[in-house]
Amino acid sequence: MYKRVRLKDTVEVPPRHLADVSPQLVKQLLQDKLEGRMDEDVGSVVSVTKVHEIGDGAVIPNKPGVYYEADFDAVTYDPQMQEVVDGEVVEVVNFGAFIGIGPVDGLLHVSQISDEYLAFDDENQQLASRESNRSLGVGDSVRARIVTKSIDERNPRDSKIGLTAKQVGLGKHGWLKEERERRQAAAGE
After folding, report:
1. CB 141 within 8 A of CB 86
2. Which of 4, 38, 62, 88 has the fewest CB atoms within 10 Å, i.e. is most exposed?
3. Contact criterion met (CB below 8 Å) for 165 and 115
4. How many CB atoms lie within 10 A of CB 79?
5. What is the pLDDT of residues 13-29, one digit of tens each?
6. Which stretches of the chain are DSSP H helices?
7. What is the DSSP string of 146-162?
8. pTM of the entire structure?
């Protein structure tokens, strides 16, 4: 889930920039420091949007810069358990598909895609069913639900988000469209 939050953090302003300690400079320093980082309380910081207040600054012995506390707004992404998300397949491997959901990827394990057996087609980078002729490949849009979440603040790329699409209303968008059309045709008979 995306959220707009108000945060406080401290940034180091290098000596060469001390004459221009402005909200724009502090915003840029906060963006460089925080964007893409994962925090257990707020999730992944997507963007620092506005700096509201900048403190007086503090000098720390044996450190070259001046440290300023800033109060600012940020947009964050914090995946919630049981949240339904739309994403795009970014990679297909023999055990499932990695789905890009916001700034992180979730794993849609092959056992959580369909009740049908899906074979890995390495040549075409897809998972395919022989029963229904359905396939899931890179670039496909998917609707899934978050079922597991393990956030690694030190190494955000090592965070693990588990997804499922084994529920009515979840799966590849093309499959969902086919299902709606089939239901509408059956209701019209």
Report:
1. yes
2. 62
3. no
4. 20
5. 999 998 889 999 999 99
6. 23-34, 173-188
7. EEEEE--SS-GGG-EEE
8. 0.75
